[in-house]
Write a structure and sequence with these properties.
Layout lengths: L2 H12 L3 H5 L2 E2 L4 E3 L5 E3 H7 L2 E5 L6 H12 L1 H6 L3 E6 L5 H9 L4 E4 L4 H6 L2 E3 L2 H9 L4 H5 L5 E3 L2 E5 L4 E7 L9 H13 L2
Parallel strand pairs: 4-5, 5-6
Antiparallel strand pairs: 1-10, 2-3, 4-9, 7-8, 9-10
Length: 196
């Protein structure tokens, strides 16, 4: 089993039902650096319209990269609904910039420095020892990628956040609904657009 699959199996047993609990709540305000090092705030994002906030493990996770490619492919569809997509991981330093450049993405990548946003949302977890050993065995050192010795990762969650900062929908890969369920995401955004 690959690392992502192992993590999802563990998340399935540990965080079952996380998406149902995560929706219908206020998303915390944040100010995080983007892939170029500029600070981006949730207030700036909300001023432009609703947004899709998606968490991923990092550029080392091939399944996460594939999921983000799907989001980037649908960016025009999201923009047409007056929204944007923001992808967040604990990766910092030049990892987000390299990931975005290597894939030619247009979506915004943010670094969750010190895991602050993920912890505020209650979706960040300590990497289990067996996964930590597998990562280390493949040369993936999260302490170097994150600038922290904590070895933590977010649950791969996706939120649809309205202009008031309310998470109207949430999807988790560890639940039955996949975090990349673009039809459900665009349905939620269409409802928000119609209600304006």
């Amino acid at each position: 089993m690959d690392l992502h699959g192992l993590l999802l199996d563990w998340l399935q047993s540990t965080f079952r039902g996380q998406a149902a609990l995560a929706a219908q709540r206020i998303a915390p305000d944040f100010v995080l650096p983007d892939d170029e090092g500029w600070l981006t705030s949730s207030r700036e994002l909300r001023a432009r319209g609703p947004y899709v906030l998606t968490f991923f493990h990092g550029g080392w996770c091939t399944a996460c990269v594939a999921r983000l490619q799907g989001f980037d492919d649908e960016l025009d569809r999201i923009h047409a609904l007056g929204a944007d997509i923001v992808a967040v991981s604990p990766d910092t330093f030049d990892h987000p910039r390299k990931l975005k450049g290597a894939n030619g993405w247009r979506l915004m990548l943010l670094s969750d420095v010190d895991y602050e946003l993920g912890l505020d949302l209650g979706i960040t977890f300590a990497v289990p020892p067996e996964v930590r050993a597998l990562l280390a065995g493949r040369g993936i050192d999260l302490s170097l990628r994150h600038g922290s010795s904590a070895w933590m990762l977010p649950v791969p969650m996706t939120y649809v956040v309205d202009r008031d900062g309310f998470a109207v929908e949430a999807f988790a890969e560890s639940d039955d609904r996949a975090g990349s369920d673009m039809d459900a995401i665009t349905t939620a955004l269409s409802k928000l657009k119609a209600s304006r």
